[in-house]
Amino acid sequence: MRQVTLLYHDVIEGNRHTESGFADPAAHRYKLQRSVFAKHLQRIHAVLNGPPITIDRLPHVPQQPTPFTIGFDDGGVSSATIIAEELGRLDWKGHFFITTDQIGKPGFVSETQLRDLDAAGHRIGSHTCSHPNPMAACSEAQLQDEWARSIARLADILDHPVDVASIPGGAYGKNVARAAAKAGIRWLFTSEPVRQSWQIGDCTLLGRFGIECEDSPHKAAAFAAEDWKVCAEEWINWNTKKTIKRLAGALFYKFRAWRQKQEISGTH
């Protein structure tokens, strides 16, 4: 199956980065201002032939044009406020992937907000319990615990099974997918910028095109419209970084965190 998915995180008012989602400066680059996010949605809406679908419909819709989905990682409180409001203006449904250890903490969604999102027709999924990064470096026992405990928590809140998830930090590995399948996850979103799904056991793996705060509405719409040049550039950049990560190991993540802190401090 083919699909195009855009991956967002938090949406904020002004520059209040710490009010929704993870407060670490490294997370700031994934937080869009509300006015910018609204322009993203308007531009995407202009190039689509219809609204985004939820993942449960993917096997049942035509593959032409390529189905489109939209998702939001981490579970910041903006999921239930700003994002839900902006999606509601277009009557769009999204996927919200929740870091379950953060539920109810400052800056993150509450149990009541999750139930409201679910009742509104959005799909709620796991983003693990503790957001380990790189997740592929976790032990088998850790992976199993992260997936099984997180979907159990969500199922308890929503009063129905949860079988969709996304991988923190895009650190995909077959071990991550195998553990997800064992936990009962049927749909697992990665951060691989691809449109063709693939299988690991009973689990369907899907790619996503990630959006950062400096990305323009035009770029987001180009992903949604499957602009071959923009998609190819993203694939090359992603795989170049993935190779560097694999070769550098933990040093890559330490350097990236340091650089992002320098970038954030330089803006103040």
Brief write-up:
This protein is an alpha/beta fold.
Description:
With 268 residues, the chain is an alpha/beta fold. The protein has a single domain, classed as Glycoside hydrolase/deacetylase (TIM Barrel, Alpha-Beta Barrel), CATH 3.20.20. 40% of the residues lie in helices and 14% in strands. The protein has helices spanning 34-47, 82-90, 111-119, 140-158, 174-183, 217-224, 228-248, 250-266, and strands spanning 4-8, 11-12, 32-33, 68-72, 95-98, 123-126, 164-166, 187-189, 198-200, 203-206, 209-210. The strands form three sheets. The protein has a five-stranded parallel sheet. A four-stranded mixed sheet has the order 7-8-10-9. Helix 4 (140-158) crosses helix 5 (174-183). The longest helix is centred in the C-terminal third of the chain and has 21 residues, at 228-248.
